[in-house]
Design brief:
The protein has 121 residues and is an alpha+beta fold. The chain has one domain: Alpha-Beta Complex (Ribosomal Protein L22, Chain A), CATH 3.90.470.20. It has helices at residues 12-21, 25-29, 32-39, 43-64; strands at 2-11, 78-81, 87-91, 98-106, 110-119. The strands form 2 sheets. A 3-stranded antiparallel sheet has the order 1-5-4. A hairpin with a 5-residue loop joins strand 2 (78-81) and strand 3 (87-91). Helix 1 packs across helix 4. The longest helix is centred in the middle third of the chain and has 22 residues, at 43-64. The radius of gyration is 14 Å and the shape is globular. The relative contact order is 0.25.
Length: 121
């Protein structure tokens, strides 16, 4: 049974500007494992990566129905990539209750994400 669906769209340049103004924002959005991946990327890819993770975590919080805030924080959610490069939730607040599926798509200017939460039988 589907428990929730969330989506989000972000402007990559907006996130890149945020990164320039507030370099420590990465530690507010990315978990230590995500930050390790981020730091290995070129500056161009860093902006895309951060925008993707930001958008994905926003989409997750919308699927939960709470948004980012008191119930769910950015650091409660961890998204890594498998050996084929596909993103997956390695940790999320409802992992004992549901499976979380994610899709992240980039264009030159935007990143769009979709999250589906499915109840564990």
């Amino acid at each position: 049974m589907i428990l929730g669906i969330g989506n989000d769209l972000e402007c990559i340049d907006r996130v890149k500007q945020m990164l320039v103004k507030l370099p420590k924002i990465t530690t507010k959005i990315l978990t230590p494992a995500e930050l390790t991946v981020f730091l290995e990327l070129s500056p161009k890819r860093q902006g895309e990566f951060l925008a993707g993770r930001f958008s994905a975590k926003e989409a997750y919080s919308k699927a939960v129905g709470t948004g980012i805030g008191q119930t769910v924080s950015f650091l409660d959610i961890e998204i890594l990539n498998d050996t084929l490069g596909r993103p997956y939730f390695s940790h999320h607040p409802l992992e004992d209750e549901c499976h979380a599926f994610i899709s992240i798509s980039h264009t030159k200017e935007h990143v769009a994400t979709m999250v589906v939460l499915e109840k564990i039988k």
